[in-house]
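Recall the central idea of this unit: under ordinary conditions, the amino acid sequence of a chain determines the structure it adopts. In this exercise we apply that idea directly, starting from the sequence alone.
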Amino acid sequence: MGFLERVKSGWNAFLGRDPTKYLPFMQYGTSGYGGRPDRFHFTRGNERSVVTSIYNRIAIDVASVNIGHVKLDENDRYLETINSTLNDCLTFEANKDQTGRAFMQDVVMSLLDEGCIAIMPVDTKGNPYMSDSYQILTMRTAKILDWYPDYVRLKCYNDQKGRQEELVMPKRLVCIIENPLYSIINEPNSTMQRLIHKLALLDITDEQTASGKLDLIIQLPYIIKTDARRQQAEERRKTIENQLAGSKYGIAYTDGTEHITQLNRAVENQLLSQVQYLTDQILAQLGLTTEILNGTADEKAMLNYNNRTIEPIISAIVDEMNRKFLTKTARTQRQRIMFFNDPFKLVPTMQLADIADKLTSNEIMSSNEIRQIIGLKPSDDPSADMLLNKNINPTGQMLPQEEEDVADDGMAYEDPDELGGDMPMSYLMNGGEQNV
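Accordingly, the structure predicted from this sequence is:
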């Protein structure tokens, strides 16, 4: 653009602007934070144990599943995706701080940590207290503090004021999701809670072992039964402490008749074996393996993990959204919130060609749909969007040899049976013209 156009419509973030003019605390008096105040934080010491890696792995895998607001046909099959604000929250932007995928990961992390959480609509088009016909513009994860017959007290992040706030909302307006693995993860005496407790005990033992104390027992050459002997022993102990503290390398001397026993060696206990046992138990109950956590699991292990862990969690979330966020009229119109797994995530590249050939030849997927999975742009060929078998000749079209015969003789040879019986040889020899 020209100079005058740049002066008229140009803008620079560092020139010609007062940065304090747009800060919220200049207008509303709110304070700022060094970190994200809306970020989820673990409770009950879960952030200090191996449990965090398990929760994070499950949350990432659940968030990778596609969720959308769709419409079904008369046979309850997927027909099309509805372009709605609810679908935008689930796929694109849930609120001003989170994308749809980040929001779903936040939901699962909170669900596994708390056991029961709520998804509440924050901004809506229409008053949900006055009518059920409202559109959800933004939503957030909320912690349930108190339960009432028809209401729940929630703690949720207020993005207008920049802090966590408590509010009471009707149960019919919020999605109340309970962890389907509650008895394994969140029960007080469940396997996961026992593992967390044992890990805490193991950490305490390690801290005591590595606290820097020497834990020495000094055996003096005389019997300590009187107050004078006890005072003499105490003075001897302080002398050794002063020697060790004042020495550069921590060296002290003792009498030849004194014996020193060191006690700061590792105490033999079964904490480590119990932690290993409980870790194996919780991984087996959740359908997890070490290969799944490090990314080297085969298809059977991933299929078992998806069916036993991922599917129950995502189904609990989707079912509650269908119950609370879709009205009876919308369900009558065959609107649903559904999730879709990508079956090609675990397929190796060497097997993808064979699978693509079988899907296209059996007219299950078109060529452009296969190209989209591979990551290629769609083809402009109209037949690439059609369900047809490329390995056979389509009905009503001639093979290449037939097209060459037509080009040579000007017409195709007709079958005598189709013309009504046996024809004379002269008819065939003269290209269809019978001698009179």
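The CA atoms of residues 155 and 298 lie 41 Å apart.
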